[in-house]
UniProtKB/TrEMBL annotation:
It comes from the Bacteria. Keywords: Iron, Metal-binding, Oxidoreductase. The lineage of its organism: Bacteria, Pseudomonadati, Pseudomonadota, Alphaproteobacteria, Hyphomicrobiales. The keyword Metal-binding applies. This is Fe2OG dioxygenase domain-containing protein. Signal peptide: none annotated. Belongs to the iron/ascorbate-dependent oxidoreductase family. Pfam families: WelO5. Residues 137-273 form the Fe2OG dioxygenase domain.
Length: 280
């Protein structure tokens, strides 16, 4: 008998992961948006100087806050997760000076990627812009540092449920029908752990329902994922990871006494064949 909590066996979807050192290209970004690559890991994609500047400014920021939405971590910026559009866009407007201040007087590498992608998509007749509403506009990124303890510092989740459930007052809900690309820049990494773990599984609406995570996509249990193959992307400061946020992913536990893991995160994807939206 089917109930809301009926066990559901997760279907396996293959992971296509590309890893290399150097500069990210717009062609690779578009491959992830089109679902041709599950995840792209670019090592040493931005300089140590920029990474250190962002890390110092993140922890010194007067806009640094503790998350109060059930996901343990600290942040600078705004998250649409579990918020209506009015609250999200107002928060994004208020946080903008703090997000911009993360880069000091250095060139913002997230904005540079956004601008390069915008130019390339424009050539193909596709507009790229920040999601907006009458209440304001999204920022190009948000800073995050996860503080979950145990097996995961960020529990296994997908990034699609939160977009699907964003609500009709958001223009970005339609992106959930396509690939929700999650872009992460890593300015600082813990000595041990802090890997990005990807599971070979892209949950459906029924899967989410069976796990009671239809509105959030967070968290998937160890029991649910136990027979699903997974792969770890081992990250270092200065790396970029871009992934299809529809696949279950999480961050492994961190240890080491020194550095804390910090990332800059954004989401983007096709809202229409001629429009790509970007938000946090
Ligand atoms: O910290 C990471 O590597 C992943 C972050 C993430 O999955 C998210 O912000 O949704
Ligand atoms: Fe995520």
């Amino acid at each position: 008998m089917a109930t809301n909590q009926a066990p559901q066996t997760p279907a396996i979807s293959p992971l296509i992961i590309k890893e290399r050192t150097g500069s990210i290209s717009t062609a690779e970004i578009i491959s992830v948006m089109k679902g041709e690559i599950t995840a792209l890991h670019i090592k040493r994609a931005f300089s140590t100087e920029v990474a250190e500047e962002i890390t110092t400014n993140f922890f010194a920021s007067s806009g640094l806050k503790e998350r109060k939405d059930g996901v343990p971590g600290q942040y600078v910026g705004a998250s649409h997760y579990r918020k209506d559009a009015a609250s999200y866009f107002r928060q994004a407007e208020n946080a903008r000076p703090h997000v911009e201040a993360l880069f000091g007087n250095l060139v913002d590498p997230v904005r540079a990627l956004f601008e390069a992608l915008k130019r390339e998509l424009h050539k193909q007749g596709i507009e790229l812009r920040l999601a907006c509403s009458e209440h304001g506009r999204a920022n190009v990124c948000r800073g995050l540092s996860w503080s979950g303890s145990g097996t995961f510092s960020l529990d296994p989740h997908d990034d699609v449920a939160q977009v699907l459930r964003a609500g009709s007052d958001y223009e970005l809900s339609s992106v959930a029908r396509n690939t929700v690309a999650a872009l992460n820049f890593y300015p600082s990494m813990s000595e041990e752990g802090g890997n990005l773990r990807l599971w070979s599984h892209k949950p459906t609406a029924d899967d989410r329902k069976s796990q009671g995570v239809e509105a959030t996509g967070y968290p998937y249990s160890a029991v649910y994922l136990k027979d699903v193959p997974c792969r770890d992307i081992q990250l270092k400061a200065g790396d970029i990871a871009l992934l299809d946020g529809g696949f279950v992913h999480g961050v492994t536990g961190q240890s080491g006494s020194g550095k804390r893991r910090v990332l800059l995160n954004s989401f983007f994807g096709f809202a229409r064949p001629d429009l790509v939206l970007w938000w946090t």
